[in-house]
Amino acid sequence: MELEEEPTHRSTKDWKVAAIRKKLDICAQKLLEVNQHAANLEAEACRIREELNAVSAAIMSLPPEILIEIFLLLCESRRKDNAKRLCSEYPPQFLIGSVCSLWRRVAWGTSRVWRTVAITFSSRRIETQNQLLQEWMDRSRTSLLDIYLYSENLGLAEILFRNLYQPPKETFAIICATNERWRTLHTPRFTHLWDQFKSGNAPATSLYELCLSLPSTEEVQTIDWDLRGSVHLKKLNLEMRGRRGLVINWRALTHLQICTSPPECLYFLPNCLALESLTIRHGFHSEASLNLNDNGACTTRLTSLTHLSLCETPMAMENVWSYMTAPNLKDLTLSPTHTPDDCMRWSNSLIQFIRRSSCSLEKVAVCNVSTTCVHTLLEEARTVIQLIVVLSIPYGQQVISNAPVLNLLNSSLYGSCHLPGLEELCLSLKGDLRTDIDTLLGMIKSRVLPLLPPRNGQPPGKKIRKIIIMYHDTALMEDVEPDTLRRFYEELHSLSTSTGTSIKMVTK
């Protein structure tokens, strides 16, 4: 006789079966969704393949002369202002060659594709690199070469005061064999390379741009290299303690960037009469004075100079502009290593240089200076179109007031508009936003809203197209009432929307 299951046991079993069936249904639904998604992806992949085939078919059908121009654009469009980054990039020539045999045949058979040589020497791969260099030079044939050399851990060697890795003589024998085709050369001090320079084995008659850097860990002061035959040399970037031993036609240079020890950095100036751009950076320390009167120096008139950038001690900067005039100067960048001790004397010396030059500045960037220096400069440089100011707190002070600079830029506070042609403004402030907020907002309004004619009848200034305000101490912003800060940002947004001026407020 069969026993019937108790109702309670049967209901529990049915509940478990129902739960399992529900899970199976959910899994089945998910599986359907996954299959559908996979089908959609496959369809999308087919569509993309068809588009790629259509595009590649058109590209593949291009004549070789058009392909070559595309390849050259790809190879030459890389940024070359940072040798370390450039030398670490994978060569685009190899990327092109990996696409197909046609591209590889066209690209690798074109000498101009190989005219840029960028390599970071490695002690572990130097034999392979030497073979690659030889093959690279052979493929470049008669093309002028842009050569960028770097060494493994070069930056780390500077920090840890270690000598950088020096490749063997064979490496530079390969490079120097092509010296008559050098158009650009960027290199730190490699012993065997500089030995080649000293021995006269690298006249580099086609050289146009040269960048030589001497790590501060080196005991060598300068380089012995006679480049009088390099009649095309126009751009020179020199980073070493001295320039003696380097024989150059200074009169032909148009762009000079120099980082050396005083008083070396100024002795070349009277000969560089064709300069269009001059950059002097502080790097090597020296106890020597920059007073040129002891050497009978006179003021040099640089009529072609349009860009001047100085990053030096305040006294060194004074000496630079005290012995030169630049009537066509348009772009001035000043970044003293520290805030001038006597701001008024430093500022007056700068103003005398501007007046003596009778130049119409269009772009001015000043960093690490006080409000006094900026105020004095802005009162004189009224033709500026682009202004960048990074204020600093003078030694011994805890806070500074930004009001003098902000009020000077406020076109509604004076009878005439200071900097009437100003179109771009970037201010990096270090004061207290709580005390600056109304003054700052008033200045911005006066430069972006429709400008009323000045009371003296002069035409109104231009409306600024771009404003960037930076505050470096975010702790000072915490003292501003939240509602006040919110209204301030809302008003900036409203002004930007209604006037079309790009207004950004940045905190660091």
From TrEMBL:
Protein name per its UniProtKB record: F-box domain-containing protein
InterPro entries named among the record's database cross-references: LRR_dom_sf
Organism: Agrocybe pediades
